[in-house]
Amino acid sequence: MKPIKIVFDKSYETDYRTVSCEVPGRVASIMDKLSPLYETVVPQPCSEDDILLCHSEGLLMVEKHDPVRYEIARKAAGGAIMAAKLALEGSISFAVVRPPGHHANPDHNWGFCFFNNMGIAVRKMLAEKIIDRAVILDIDLHFGDGTDAIFRYDEAVRVFNIQSSTRREFIEETRSALEDAGNAGILGISAGFDQYELDWGANLTTGDYHEIGVIAGTYARNFCSGRVFILLEGGYYLPDLGANALSLLTGVAEGVDEK
Length: 259
What we know:
This protein has helices spanning about 25-35, 50, 55-65, 65-90, 115-125, 145-150, 165-180, 205-225, 240-255, and strands spanning about 5, 40, 90-95, 135-140, 155-160, 185-190, 230. The protein is of the alpha/beta class. It has a seven-stranded parallel sheet with strand order 2-1-3-7-6-4-5, with helices on both faces.
């Protein structure tokens, strides 16, 4: 069985300037579930050059005006890079990061996001020629416009935003998307949990996240040499956020390790 590693830094719990629902308790609730079960790895911040793989100099300068938030956003992107590298080294990894990233576009950001964590991680792996192709699966309630904009014209990366509004359609859309994805060097999952039945989307159950994880893990086993990493995006119903994250992660592991 592949080892499972969690990427986390206590700085993700900083109460930086953002909206009221994007609270430090989000990552704390997930770590309460995951940290007793799996090894935790502490990342380093990404570099400015890493940020510029996806974002304009102007956006970088704007974010530097809030030095506290800027440093945590660098650490979140660094966590995404570490998660991708751990996956390439043979682990299944889950980066429990704040701030999220999938609404960070090349030259602007919104939706509680500042730098595009997934985009930076994937672009860095491509730039270093560790992989030549990647697939990104975004299961957040909201369309990941930033990730889509970064890779829209990049033939090396396919981005699938799953947007169905019913449980079975969401799961079947996930299955259909990955059936069409082809071979890749790595699968990155932008894991938003706001599709949950008690969250904003009022849609998926905890068990559904496990099923989605199995689908993604099976795809990674068959088409990505088992290389898969997960990044936290949305999810705001704290009582069940950790259980949903664990359900997705164990589903991915089951799919990857299925014989």
